[in-house]
Hints:
seven-stranded mixed sheet, 29 helices
Amino acid sequence: xxxxxxxIEAKWQKYWAEHQTFKxxxxxxxxxxxxxxxxxxxxxxxxxxGHPLGYIASDIYAxxxxxxxxxxxxxxxxxxxxxxxxxxxxxxxxxxxxxxAANIKTYRRQLDQLGxxxxxxxxxxxxxxxxxxxxxxxxIQIFNSWYNTDTDKAEDIETLxxxxxxxxxxxxxxxxxxxxxxxxxxxWNSFSDVKKQEILLQYRLTYLAxxxxxxxxxxxxxxANDEIVNGVSERGGHPVVRKKMTQWSMRxxxxxQRLLDGLAKIDWPQPLKDSQTNWIGRSQGASATxxxxxxxxxxxxxxTRPDTIFGVSFMTLAPEHELVSEIxxxxxxxxxxxxxxxxxxxxxxxxxxDVKTISGAFTxxxxxxxxxxxxxxxxxxxxxLAGYGTGAVMSVPCGDQRDYDFAKHFNIDxxxxxxxxxxxxxAHADKDKTVIANSDFLSGLPYKKAxxxxxxxxxxxxxxxxxxxxxxRDAVFSRQRYWGxxxxxxxxxxxxxxxxxxxxxxxxxxxxxxxxxxxxxPPLGNAEVWAWDTVANKVVNNSEINNTTVFPLELNTMPGWxxxxxxxxxxxxxxxxxxxxxxKAINYWQDVDLYIGGSEHATGHLLYSRFWxxxxxxxxxxxxxxxxxxxxxxxxxxGTSAFVYRDEDGTLISKGLIxxxxxxxxxxxxxxxxxxxxxxxxxxxxxxPEYAKxxxxxxxxxYVVGREVEKMSKxxxxxxxxxxxxxxxxxxxxxxYEMFLGPLEQSKPWNTAGITGTHSxxxxxxxxxxxxGNASFLVSExxxxxxxxxxxHKTIKKVEEDIENFxxxxxxxxxxxxxxxxxxxxxxxxQILEPLAILVSPYAPHIAEELWSKLGHTESIATAPFPKxxxxxxxESSKEYPISFNGxxxxxxxxxxxxxxxxxxxxxxxxxxxxQQLQGREPKKVIVVPGKIVNIVG
Length: 938
């Protein structure tokens, strides 16, 4: 009866699927526990062994919680909209839905073979109309809302309209566009319908605006910052430029302070919290207004140091700032336009990160200092970004190194406003401990007093005020792509209208081409049937737009983060076609108890999801304003890449012979290398035909490759397919090995050779339940020995502590020690082995199920109660004393811990071995330390 892991694993995977073993109920007397993984994008490459790390950890915890009596929700689905599928469609003409479905099939097979306890009855796919119907529905709710700063929450747009109708907007405190003209109630009521809609767009939580975006001409779409690497698109490496486009945006900035405050309520990793804190970027200071000489225009800036305002020697605008074209003089126009064109080719991230390059252009215009009335030259520089703050800064070179370097480079004055400070070599950084000088009424004041007075004087002039500012910008919500959620929006007189929710979902239309149209419209512009009939309430042919009831639909699609911003709530009630989820379901599950995923989503998905959750909380849709109590960022499993070395003449040199040669390392497929780092030269030549006739310089008849630990990636040919590992060693071996590699949060290198250790352990575990040679199953009903009880309960204690602390790697070691001890004790007692099977079950569920079945159980081990630790089995009743003579230990003697000092001495002296050592002599004294040692001094 060998350990046939392939048969066992297939058997129990089938059983779990047929019996829906892990299906969670929305109505249970059990306490709930919601375990969630960040759902995957189903790429064509499928899973490699690095992907399941977090899934294994979450699965262990989900299974453990079931053993503990919880009603566990552990769902899975697919983030199935995305650019890769669209790019593949452009290249091949195959519809993204077809490739996505094929990829999902592969992912599902691979996930199932790893034995995850997912409730597949709740699967969601963001590209499914049944799912994105509710993404569209949330968009409508956000559109029909505004943010009331008096109540500090989102409210229905009708309440704002009511305020306008009765009082105008003078007393409305809202998060809205800047520079909204004031109007009375009478004026509002007299406005045309289009005018009213234009005004409301300036208040809505999602709105249309001209926005600077990352435009990738080759891909024909806008890219998010995290989709750009080193100034080019992450996918394909295409150039990206900054471009102003009319886009949908989400007013996430309204929630900036609440997003900061909420971090204190959730158990998330501190580095991730720090990332969000820095991204939101709260700063306290003042706004200041500088008039532009010769123009009816002003430059608004935000500064955290208004006390340094007398140190301003120039202004710097972002090249994209809307005033640049208006104020640039004729003499400077050519230089400014050339600089703007060059800047457009650099991403915002590149501009922020590049602190060495100094560049800029003088506009020829001057601003007026609010206090001195002196002219201040206005420059443009790419270190100022249009989307941050006001897109303009008052440059104080004596107190800011970047301003200092800029001023030095362009020979601009650097006035010193700090008392007793030398700024001849660099700007003064430690401004907090400095007295202000050369600053009129601020001179002689420490910075805190100077700040307050500067703000007071700016307010008196009507050219500034104290202000809290956030770096967080509103989130661009449009993408010029096909494969994404369609907006539920049509246009009348150029103004956006929402499609009534009962007519959702608005499904993606068929198109012949997935590229932008010849006139530059997004791919949906290629659809023949893509207009909205307000009478028939359905999508109709574009040719009917002339009809007075048919209007054009929005051609952009939503970004990838749209579908992932509420999927955790939809899992609670995924089959509900009448509402996004029932209140019964959301009030039962409440929120996610444990969320596991990558730290790379800190300022993307995790920030946007928190924003949407807070909005839904404001609208009374969810009971919690944070969606996940605890978050763990799993580390990365890295690959051990293999390299061959090409000499200058094209020869490939074995690693041991490259010293002194000018060689170029080239990645080789790790599957062509054995455990001794020896390359299969013949297979390599077939793999890369261009090397078929190249000479290989061997050492001792072998070609030895170089090794280096890198991110596991298809492009580095260091990917290990879990299918092959499961075939050779089994899923349970893979699960144990990935946990055994090290702490969950840390990165660790993969080494396939190491999996033999966990595989050998599972074979030993199997043998523990069987007779010698695995001839038959053998578990006795005999009472266990004291040592066996001790081994079991110290294992229960350690494993439970490890799981609660997410220290899964040390649990695997504990299992190995346990089985080794039970083996040496020749323990085959049911009272020991049955709880051991439950302990192992979260980690290696297939073998545990099989052993549980062999123990006579007809129900799955999945919900068997977790063994209870009993301290009494670890309390020692006796002690093995080292018996020493003149300080040298000669033998040991086991004695009861209940014996007194005199009783211990008597027992030792009466022992036969003691008498042999003394040979009739009387000892001078006997030293007894109860519970520790006995030393006989002769």
